[in-house]
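Thread title: Can someone regenerate the structure for this chain?

I was given the following input by a collaborator and told the matching structure tokens would be attached. They weren't. Posting the sequence so someone can regenerate them.
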Amino acid sequence: MKFGKTIEEALQKEIQGGCFMVKEKKRLGLLFLAGFFFAILSLNFMSSPTAVNAATRKIVVGNKKCIDCHSKMRKDKYVHGVVAVAQCTICHVKTGEHKFKPLPRQISSLCFRCHDKNNFISKKHVHLVVKIGLCTQCHNPHHSKYKFLLRKKQPNLCFKCHDKKMIDKKFIHGPVAFGQCTICHNPHQSNFPRMLMAKGNNVCFTCHTDKARGIKTAKFVHKPVKESCVYCHSPHATNYKYQLKADGSKALCLKCHTKKKKWIAEVKTKHGALATKKGCLACHDPHYSNYPYQLRKQPMTLCLGCHNKRIKATDGTMLPNMKAYLANHKDWHGPIKQKDCTACHNPHG
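Best answer:
Regenerated them for you:
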């Protein structure tokens, strides 16, 4: 306002004429030049790349200042890309001197600006922490000792949420024992229940390739094996060998084979094989076989594998060496000719 008033007064004095008018003209000229120079300088400041980026440039300086104090962020084994190149403001929006806009509660909305969300939330089953957008529950957004910026090493990271008691057992599944939960589970999303990497048994067959081949070629496959390995095996840990859910020699089998359980409990004379450590497995393969009932060998050959010497029966009777007896007596009974001992004998009791 003062500057405008001075110009107005000078114009009024110019009208009055005389020497005074000349002096005022000179002053007016100087004021005009000063104003012109100021205007040019302002335009130059506005158009300069350095000036235009004044706010941005201030932020860039801020990034460098961040690293000056937060220097440890770039010294870990694994550093987030944006931290490595000191671009803090990709995630943190500056609103003032050392003030930043609060990060979104659903932090994934920030992560998905760079990371393709289809790789994390597009499938049928999504890990809960991913679903609610808490990426930083598992990942450190700045740096970490562990690959993928994990906050802890597997399986300790998983045990932040999942009960560690699941592996407090005598026998632990290999991948779990080595802390490799992600061999079987996808930590973000999956099209299969429990975030599995593949459908049912196919997860198991990734490692247990021998069983996969056997099942494909065998004539007879145990029904639970066809459906799901976890009917019999715990995928994490148990107190029974082979991660079985119960004693595999008999107790586990009788959970499903309830009629056999009742029969064995009630009969007077039980098959001796059931009293051995192998139990049911003395005669049956739990997975597959080329013989009915998953028998380990052709029925008569299987029987003579034990009955090749004198045996004391469970009732105290001494049984003959049947293999030698049959070798010395060629006039075989019809079922023996057909190699079917079970035509006359119940193999359980």
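DSSP finds 17 helices and twelve strands in the chain.
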